[in-house]
Amino acid sequence: MARLLQPVCWRLFPWRGYCSQRTQGELSKGFVEALKAVVGSSRVSTTAIVRDQHGHDESVHRCKPPDAVVWPQNAEQVSRLAALCYGHGLPIIPFGTGTGLEGGVCAVQGGVCINLTMMDRILELNPEDFSVVVEPGVTHRALNTHLRASGLWFPVDPGADASLCGMAATRASGTNAVRYGTMRDNVLNLEVVLPDGRLLHTAGQGRHFRKSAAGYNLTGLFVGSEGTLGLITAATLRLHPTPEATVVATCAFPTVQAAVDSTVHILQAAVPVARIEFLDDVMMDACNKYSKLNYSVAPTLFFEFHGTKEALAEQVQRAEEITQNNGAFHFSWAKEAEERRQLWAARHNAWYSALALRPGSKGYSTDVCVPISRLPEILVQAKEDLKASGITGAIVGHVGDGNFHCILLVDPEDPEELHRVKVFAEQLGRRALALHGTCTGEHGIGLGKRHLLQEEVGAVGVQTMRQLKAVLDPKGLMNPGKVL
Q1: Strands 131-134 and 122-126: what pairing?
Q2: How far apart are CA 317 and CA 300, in angstroms?
Q3: What distance in Å separates the CA atoms of residue 98 and residue 70, rounded to the nearest whole number?
Q4: Which chain positions lie within coiled-coil regions (predicted)?
């Protein structure tokens, strides 16, 4: 089977190395029984269909499935599972909701997939301190449902209903980052099971302070580590007061340049906007069809404003003036909750809307971020490059913080089309680096951007990361093949 897998992976992803030669089904009966002794027989699976389900995320990246999948119910079981795998030299792949876009859960060397979704308790809520402690199976929607009566909410929203600890592992961002920051800014403490089974509290057990100058920032080390340093079994998160009032507005523009210029001008004018989302004409057409809307098929900005009713009126008026100065048309407000919900649901479904433009295709999502001042330049160039490439694709992004995505639709059976996608994605990543940006604003490095990581942080940067991993994971068992 291993001999068959390598050419398949090479054919699908000719730009990306190779799949491991380690064959499947190597787990001994005794080892599988040892796994069952930790979590129970019903929470261990070696069946092909379950392993396949856990061998990929929402990306086009496909490789080998894990050899077994286990479902622990608490941190103690995770610790025992890690120690067991560590002692047998078996790779460990953490798994949350599987909504990642860079192949972060692919088992390139086989091993044991630890599915953390059964650990779904909200452990502690401290409303006076604006913090909450959650297990890895809690999603951001579930948390906000739980918080509804408290007057608090967790604003980091990547679109998909991702698990919060998975969001911490990938340093997720989303539509609200322009005002509330990313996961990097909203994680106060982490409980982490290290590869050998030891339990670490990155800021000290039970602590949930806003700032500290005590030692190295271990919390920051694990936020964005993509499962390569340990398994996050609990996260202490920063909460925010629920806005008194919310208004959503949309406006269309004659050109991409005009839309992005408006974004820059609004930010320069210090308008306290909570969200600024950009959708190009292709994406708007896709959203209209998929979500049954009737918006102009033109480059469009979605805004959301939070605050008092009096402040909102002033914010919207200022934003409208700026957009009109840049040639905007069809500026409209969405004040009612249901109308706002429908609008943001369409934005959050952009991935599936784009896929529906070409049924049967796979989606490949780029993810770059640049300084705000360089955003018009790179977005206009990306649109031109996309047209010149002949690739079917749409552009959507959290332009309020300089981050955007090109959702490219590709036939995985067409090597020539795959090559064009590879060339476009790498060119876009390098354009972002040349403009002092990053090759990934929120998706992470995963499998597909390891070569760009070295170009971004340099040889010494990657070497330092390797040294850190070697100390924490000397056997290289934690999610191998990712990031480095």
Answers
A1: antiparallel
A2: 18
A3: 15
A4: none
Q: Is 42 helix (H, G, I), strand (E, B) or coil?
A: helix
Q: What is the reported pLDDT for 5?
A: 31
| 102 and 250 fall within a common domain | no
Q: Long-range contact list for 334-341, CB < 8 A, 24+ apart? A: 334/247, 334/248, 334/249, 334/250, 335/247, 335/248, 339/248, 340/246, 340/248, 340/304
- Report whether pLDDT(7) > 80: no
pLDDT for 339 beyond 90:
no
In the three-class reduction of DSSP (H, G, I as helix; E, B as strand; rest coil), residue 171 is classed as coil
For β-strands 300-307 and 273-279, DSSP reports them as: antiparallel
| Local confidence band at 23 (pLDDT 50, 70, 90 cut-offs) | very low
Is 346 inside a domain boundary?
yes
Tokens of 366: 């780029």
Cβ neighbors of 19 (< 8 A, separation 6 or more) are 5, 6, 8, 9, 63, 64, 108
Q: How many domains does the chain have?
A: 2
pLDDT tens, position by position, 78-119: 999 999 999 999 999 999 988 888 888 899 999 999 999 999
**Inside any domain, residue 6:** yes
| Residue 89 belongs to domain with CATH number | 3.30.43.10
Kindly give the pairing relationship between strand 245-252 and strand 329-334.
antiparallel
Residues 6+ apart with CB under 8 A from 123: 133, 134, 135, 234
| Digit-coded pLDDT (tens) for 186-205 | 999 999 999 999 999 999 99
- Angle among Cα 221, 226, 230 to the nearest 5 degrees reads 65
* Assigned domain for 180 exists: no
pLDDT one-digit tens code per residue, 368-388: 999 999 999 999 999 999 999
Q: In this prediction, what percent of the chain has a pLDDT beyond 90?
A: 73
Give residues with Cβ within 8 angstroms of 295, minimum separation 6. Answer: 250, 252, 284, 287, 288, 330
pTM summary value: 0.89
**What is the domain range of residue 18?**
2-115
* CB within 8 Å of 153: residues ≥ 6 apart: 144, 147, 239, 240, 241, 242
Q: Which amino acid, one-letter code, is at 2?
A: A
Pairwise CA distance, residues 143 & 134, whole Å: 8
Q: Please state, in angstroms and rounded to a whole number, the distance separating the CA atoms of residues 115 and 97.
A: 9
CATH number at residue 270: 3.40.462.10
Residue 267 backbone phi and psi in degrees, to 5: -70, -40
**Alpha carbon 64 to its chain's center:** 22
Within-domain flag for 412: yes
Choose the final residue of a domain: 96, 115, 134. 115
Q: What is the mean pLDDT of the chain?
A: 90
